[in-house]
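Thread title: Can someone regenerate the structure for this chain?

I was given the following input by a collaborator and told the matching structure tokens would be attached. They weren't. Posting the sequence so someone can regenerate them.
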Amino acid sequence: MSAALTLATSDHLDALLALVERFHDEEGIDSTPDSRHAGVAPLLDGIPHGAAYLIGPPRAPIGYIIICFGWSVEFAGMDGFVDELYIRPGVRGRGVATEVLMALPRALAQGGLKALHLEVDTTNDTARRLYKRAGFKMRDGYHLMTQML
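Best answer:
Regenerated them for you:
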């Protein structure tokens, strides 16, 4: 199975939105077609706040990963957040996500990214093992907190 990554463009909007819908349904994320479009389309139009990558063949992607960018004084530069990572259920467990999480951070580091963060459900042992294999670590004394605006 190939974890080939393609930077998604507006030509990939429909395919990406279909994958996002499947991911949101699977994870119980409350979203609508309009909210998914509003969240994805600007990334494909080149805004500097993030990027979406298709995983696998662009004509029939097996998943996607979305990275959002920020700035960190602590890390002395640009950092990123894995906003969403999705692999179709039929191809999970074949090392694709591990390959993506090993290759993409290296490429982003070459572009100047200093740190990459992600959020994981504390009860999702499969995801926690995946992220650990890919080099992500829990930061002692830190927990992600969110304020909805």
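The chain has one domain: 5-133.
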